[in-house]
Amino acid sequence: MPTTAPAFADATASDSALRRFLFGLPGVDAVGLEARAASLGTRSIKTTAKAYAIDLAISMIDLTTLEGADTPGKVRALAAKAVNPDPTDRTTPRTAAVCVYPDMASTAAAAVAGSGVKVASVATAFPAGRAALDVKLADVRDAVAAGADEIDMVIDRGAFLSGRFLKVYEEILAVKAECGPARLKVIFETGELSTYDNIRRASWIGMLAGADFIKTSTGKVATNATPANTLLMLEAVRDFRAATGVQIGVKPAGGIRTTKDAVKFLVLVNETAGEDWLDPHWFRFGASSLLNDLLMQRQKLSTGRYSGPDYVTVD
Amino acid sequence: MSDNNRLGVFKTYKLYVGGKFPRSESGRVYEVTTKTSAAGTAGKGQWLANAPQSSRKDARDAVVAARKAFGGWSGATAYNRGQVLYRVAEMLEGRKEQFVREVAASEGLSKSKAAAAVDAAIDRWVWYAGWTDKIGQIAGGANPVAGPFFNLSTPEPTGVVAVLAPQKSSFLGLVSVIAPVIATGNTAVVIASADAPLPALSLGEVLATSDVPGGVVNILSGVTAEIAAPLAAHQDVNAIDLTGADAELAKELEIAAADNLKRVLRPQPVDTDGASDSEDWLASPGTHRLTAFLETKTVWHPTGALGAAGSSY
């Protein structure tokens, strides 16, 4: 997808046109949205359905380490876990990707080579995104050259919140052009966008600019992925495909720690976007500790005994 | 209810898990009645209260809470743990009347016998509080070795302990099995007596108001076998005390516990008629319940210059 989908060609013609388009989107019923997300969270998923959900969730994880203290050794250990999450049970699916900082992308790429696990690298001055465009683009180039299959960029929240929507849009376009074959995930940092209306607008900017994925958050602020904001973004990708025929992925990230949470998100996906999105190509979890909980639940299902943290890796 | 014009306020007994008082995840309750001899009638006793009937998921949640609390509790100084346990005894003293009432109704004891049992329980709690900073000297020490080394053994808490409280002695027996487990720094998931859980559930309220961190003791009521089975098989439980299990259940649980090499305390039955617990709770307890849930860590350290200088170390 080169630039804007034809159906919305004139929406991005100018700053004022884009503003008109974004403010023309229907307002979000916040109470209704949260109630819908909460009611979908009460579904009971048991036995074979649970086993399916656990394996699907594992295969959707972008196993993430984004710390100042990351070392090549830690990244290699993470990659080994992504390729083979539970060494005691070879039927465990591998995760979708490992997600690291750009300078660790080459280490990660070497470690997962040939396994089918993708390397995702954050870029564009993650997590703040406060850098000149040239610097951001160089960051992306660097990550792609190091072997990243996927680029997680952050939008310029400062520009977004001050109403310069076209700047946000053009920056995503520029980053997308720099990605080459790599898939682009656009992070909105929903916790900093203040309102659900803003999340809906940001989603549309991202989709119009050619994002392959829209992603909730960096995991570095107080409020990360919630069922409500993920539901809203799932509605956006559903509506976008209905209008343009183009399918876009969704990635909630940060704060999803338990199997129960993950299954709730999968229910949201199935009930909102539909079965087409129940695939690691179209839906991801940005998480690290979630994997251990999924593995413990998986062990519980296969052995009938509750497992414990002694039976999964520390990180 | 001496005043006939007043409506009694019935208490909703709840579980004690992670410092909170949840109902059972399953939503179930069961009827707790007085012991028949106290009611003075044949068959079922008089209704006392509804107690939550825990499910295996309550047990799972309790283990998670106990594991979370383990780091802080085992890392606290022994002196501090002793102070906290003494505080529990202080709180028990203040609520003595309530416990006497509950024990009398649950066990079918006269008021004076129940009061004696509660007094003994509070004294036992104080006794174990004193052991927190002394058990190290008894169970550990410097070992004589044939070489230039200091060789020191120290006992450390084993981790999360599942405790099946005695079925008959609803309070003195209960205290006698909980206190030694937590005195040494373990955390506990306790299954209260199935027929007489009320004193145990009330003990949760005491623990919540006496500086014991949430999760150190978790109290579940319900059908013993139903809750005990997942705990015995649980991979994140380090030890199990089978005091409240009958011979058949104890065997089953011991087999399940072998899977992750849990420490198992299985008291030998001395009374098999089912009329009383296998242990005499009024007797002096000794230290075997303290040492049952400890791991010994031994450290070798070269004596170095001391050894070279011909010291007698």
From TrEMBL, chain A:
Catalytic class of the enzyme: lyase
Pfam families, per database record: DeoC
Regions crossing the membrane: none
This protein's pathway: Carbohydrate degradation; 2-deoxy-D-ribose 1-phosphate degradation; D-glyceraldehyde 3-phosphate and acetaldehyde from 2-deoxy-alpha-D-ribose 1-phosphate: step 2/2
Keywords associated with the record: Lyase, Schiff base
InterPro entries to which the protein is assigned, alphabetical: Aldolase_TIM, DeoC, DeoC/FbaB/LacD_aldolase
E.C. no: 4.1.2.4
CDD domains given in the database record: DeoC (cd00959)
Protein name: Deoxyribose-phosphate aldolase
Automatic annotation (TrEMBL), chain B:
Gene3D superfamilies documented for this protein: Aldehyde Dehydrogenase, Chain A, domain 1
UniProt entry tagged with the keyword Hydrolase: no
GO molecular function: aldehyde dehydrogenase (NAD+) activity
Domain of life: Bacteria
Pfam families hit by this protein: Aldedh
EC number: 1.2.1.3
Keyword Mitochondrion: no
Enzyme class, UniProt record, top EC level: oxidoreductase
InterPro entries membership: Ald_DH/histidinol_DH (IPR016161), Ald_DH_N (IPR016162), Aldehyde_DH_dom (IPR015590)
Identification of the protein by name: Aldehyde dehydrogenase (EC)
Species name: Streptomyces globisporus
Highest classification ranks of the organism: Bacteria, Bacillati, Actinomycetota, Actinomycetes, Kitasatosporales
